[in-house]
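Example 4.3 (complexes with small molecules)
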Amino acid sequence: MLTITDGDAATGQVVATAGSYRFDLTLPGGTTLPVAGVTNVGVLPTHRRRGLFRRLMVRQHDDIAAEGLAVAVLNASDARIYGRFGYGMASRYAVVRIDTHRSGFATAPPTRNLRLMRSAHAGDVLPALYDAAAATRPGTLSRSATWWAMMLGDTEMWKGGGHHEVVVAEPQGDDPGGYAVYRVAPDGEGVTVTVREVVAATAGTHAALWRYLLDVDLALGVHAEVPVDDAVLWWLDDPRALITQQVRDFLFVRILDTPAALSARRYRVPVEVVLEVTDHFRPDSGAAGRFMLRGDANGAACTPTADDPDITLGVDALGSLLLGGVDAHVLAATGRITAHRSGAVDAVATAFGWSSAPFCATRF
Ligand SMILES: CC(C)(COP(=O)(O)OP(=O)(O)OC[C@H]1O[C@@H](n2cnc3c(N)ncnc32)[C@H](O)[C@@H]1OP(=O)(O)O)[C@@H](O)C(=O)NCCC(=O)NCCS
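Answer. The structure with coenzyme A bound is encoded below.
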């Protein structure tokens, strides 16, 4: 944790803080990259707007880069603040409610053996299932044993914890299985099921778990935060049974080392493109410069080049592209990408896009 103290370092009052966790972030293609998860950013109300936060951001990103990490991520309490520090919005999630009375599936989902489990025992089972599913969803953050203990612990906090039900889908053939964590609370004449997470490496287990959640006795509705492309909508016979109440930003990505970050992910179709990356916050860092990216579904290499650029973009826009959830056409249309040859934006959009939208269920 970094701090700034008012007055003497030993006796003065701490007036500003910024911390960071270490995670492995899943990228398109199922590869992972060690990242810093920036958190606990705060400045006392008595000391705001004097530049303390900016000072902490400079120190923190110097430290993260010195550690050799190519990327920092965060969840923003205020989404306006971090663009100036090179963060780009990279993942969003949908807040949905499904009316259980209209929640029949268009076709029968695959069957799975399901087993209810006490959360006290879930710590032995859930981490392996979570890790098995991680490669299928860009944006997933690894969870340490301490993190799991907090998420499944008795104390409820915004990161997790408190009383929950746990249902586990047993492995079947090559399918490692999965789980759902949820809560049931009285709601008028019935109950509402609030889903904390549904984790599955395959479409079959995902569907079986959702069928279970929608069939909880007395449930009037199921409330959940899901990937924006969650397949549950497409199982429903009546798609209007699912109401999307909100779509919200979640992960913001800050690239600190462009070659390392772009080499680590995979690309949907072969791409060869020269990117000119600008970085106002850290102009002399490893993010800014001109880079040749060659990549495909099996690997990628990104190296400095003197060739003419195909596109120019800020490091924040590049962060938005990293997880495959933002279309380069939209970034170009809103002035965040400048193209220097025709077809360049199309090539980037097609290669950087991915088959599943990024999603992160770990609040930090
Ligand atoms: C948000 C917060 C950390 C800013 O701290 P601060 O020390 O006042 O910020 P600084 O004076 O260093 O300002 C840094 C930059 O952010 C901008 N900024 C600060 N707060 C902002 C806000 N609420 N909205 C938009 N911009 C903001 C400043 O204008 C400044 O911009 P510039 O350097 O480009 O000119 C502080 O107000 C705070 O702790 N707020 C309550 C908790 C909170 O919202 N935390 C955010 C975590 S995501």
